[in-house]
Amino acid sequence: VQLQASGGGLVQRGGSLSLSCESSGLSLNKYAMGWFHQAPGKEREVVSCISSRDGETTYADSVKGRFAISRDFAKNSVYLQMNSLKPEDTGVYYCGTPRRCDWPPDYWGRGTQVTVSS
User: Fold this and answer.
1) How far apart (Å, rounded) are the C-alpha atoms in residues 116 and 118?
2) Per DSSP, which regions of 39-111 are E strands?
3) Residue 18 φ then ψ, to 5°
4) Cα torsion angle, 61, 69, 37, 84, sign
5) Distance of alpha carbon 39 from alpha carbon 73, whole angstroms
6) Is 24 helix (H, G, I), strand (E, B) or coil?
7) Is the Cβ–Cβ distance between 69 and 49 less than 8 Å?
């Protein structure tokens, strides 16, 4: 199983980035897919998750209204559109595949760095 995250980079406050995570070796119709954020010196936290069954989405309070998660079963991929970025959004973003959005992921991607300058 491999999860490859991409799309990170350096952006100014208020800017946008779009992250992608492509999976291989995994049947995504059995897994939710989530994005997780690890800020420097802090623990990894869930940002957003999308369920496998009905596409229900969840968001951390800190990103509601700014981030949007989506998935493409045909491409075995999940995406995170990040708008109105803030310096506190800086960190490494990981994609993960939990069985359910309220469970920890069974598999993790390597992560992609997002840096938001002020």
Assistant:
1) 7
2) 44-50, 57-59, 67-72, 77-82, 91-97, 107-108
3) -125, 120
4) negative
5) 29
6) strand
7) yes
For the stretch 23-80, pLDDT in tens is 998 877 889 999 999 999 999 999 999 998 888 999 999 999 999 999 998 898 999 9
**CB under 8 Å to 21, separation ≥6 — which residues?**
3, 4, 5, 6, 33, 35, 77, 78, 79, 80, 95, 109
Q: Are 106 and 31 in contact (CB under 8 A)?
A: yes
Q: Distance (Å, rounded) from C-alpha 4 to C-alpha 88?
A: 24
Residue 100 pLDDT level (bands cut at 50, 70, 90): very high
* Residue 54 per-residue DSSP state: S
